[in-house]
User: What shape does this take?
Amino acid sequence: MLIKGKVIRKIKGFYYVLDENCKNLNKENIYECKLRGSLKVKNDKLNCIIGDIVEFNENEKVITDIEDRKNFLHRPLLSNIDFIGILLSVISPNFDFTVFQKMLLNAYSQNIPVIVIISKIDLISDEKLTLFLNEIKRNFGNTVPVFPVSTEKNIGLDTLLSYIKGKSVTVSGPSGTGKSTLINTLIGENILETNEISSKTSRGRHTTTESRFFKIDINTYLIDTPGFSSLEFPKLKEKKELELLFPEFMNYIPKCKFRDCLHVNEPDCAVKKNVTKGNIPEMRYNFYLYSLNNLFSK
Assistant: This one.
């Protein structure tokens, strides 16, 4: 009998497939399968990846077909994602705008929508939180939805759950931002190991070593991804590709005098003019220059 399912884990050539019609991640709903030989390309990591919708033979435990992906992330390698949930704490460790913008850049380069989850808001005063959220609004406007939450005080979680209902959402961020605690809280089970912040480095100890799927309800998935201590820029071939990853620039790029304008030293650059006018946040323009330098300095 052929069953449709979603690949939720991969270990050494075995694919763990969740029956698409099930309501939970109980063991009886997960099948350990191999990939049919005709679906394999030698040494190709993209043969079958976590998040793929597949058809498999229940008796033979063999994946017989893989549906076309609507998208996939390169790092970590995941497919069919509705949102990338960037998780950063407001404090302990402090919110890092450079890391945040790098994560935005990577998400935009893969054309996947982003939401921002700001954790540990109970650790600062309401006044400081308001100032911080205003800073986010001032620099990023309405380009990305923001969800301030506290797992400790149960603040903002219902709003977040309502927004992601029926979606597949990866949760990614630096170690120590409370990712495992957040996922445990949202799924209502104490499944993921959590670790305290290192007193020496003010960073979290890595607790996730692989991407893992969790199911909140029949159509809502959370994917826990490994934390990181550093983040690379996306790979771009041409300098002009970078501007497309800055939605704040889009209305002004066509008004630049030169079609190949890089918005650095060129005359009559509409992007630079609108930075001066305050229509483009200076933080975003400075990060554009920083990214351009890092990506193409060699």
Remarks:
- The first strand starts at residue 2 and ends at 11.
